[in-house]
Automatic annotation (TrEMBL):
Protein name, UniProt field: DUF3000 domain-containing protein
Xref: Pfam families: DUF3000
Source species: Microbacterium azadirachtae
InterPro entries: DUF3000
Length: 193
């Protein structure tokens, strides 16, 4: 972990609050090493939807990075920035939906709004990928994947932003809010970075 709280302890308090969050039972969230060089202070979380005994998920995964820079970079418009990532495999016919990328982005914005996670300067990409196996991978057939990469500057409490990100990871994996213990249909192989 790359967490070096400033003298005022603001980052240390924020990190402690994020570490104390509890997420739905079918999304396993853990702290991972934060990327270095992006900000003086950083905390990173990883999420896997219904992972198997090896920790791998066929349903979806995500990353959440909280960055803190007391110098308030102009591009951030404040001392905090969140960088988030979520991906999930899809059925090929869903992957061809021309509105899929727009829907994925709207789910992020809706999740932030439903949690009261106020923010500004949101940006990102929503990518859908279609694949077809050949040779030794031909038996795997066709596949599709949705991936969302986003960043935004949070205002107000930080915990709702992590909760919204976890909700997004679940939504992309086919788990709408309140759907714990409901079967996920159509899980495909997951392509990881």
């Amino acid at each position: 972990m790359s967490a070096h709280p400033g003298p005022d302890g603001v980052f240390a308090l924020a990190a402690e609050q994020l570490r104390a969050l509890r997420f739905r039972d079918d999304i396993v969230v853990r702290e991972i090493p934060a990327p270095s060089g992006l900000a003086p202070d950083a905390l990173a979380l990883a999420a896997d939807v219904r992972p198997d005994e090896n920790g791998d998920s066929l349903y979806g995964t995500g990353r959440f990075v909280l960055l803190h820079d007391p110098a308030e970079p102009d591009a951030w418009g404040g001392p905090w920035r969140i960088v988030a990532f979520a991906q999930a495999p899809l059925e090929p016919e869903i992957g061809t939906d021309p509105l899929l990328a727009d829907v994925a982005w709207s789910w992020l914005i809706d999740a932030l709004g439903s949690r009261g996670a106020t923010h500004h300067s949101a940006s990102g990409t929503s990518t859908k990928t279609l694949s077809k196996g050949f040779g030794g991978l031909a038996a795997e057939g066709d596949g599709a994947q949705i991936e969302l990469r986003a960043s935004w500057s949070p205002t107000g409490p930080l915990a709702p932003h992590a909760e919204a990100w976890a909700e997004l990871v679940g939504m992309l994996a086919g788990l709408p809010p309140g759907s714990e213990d409901i079967a996920v249909f159509g899980a495909r192989r997951t392509i990881r970075d």
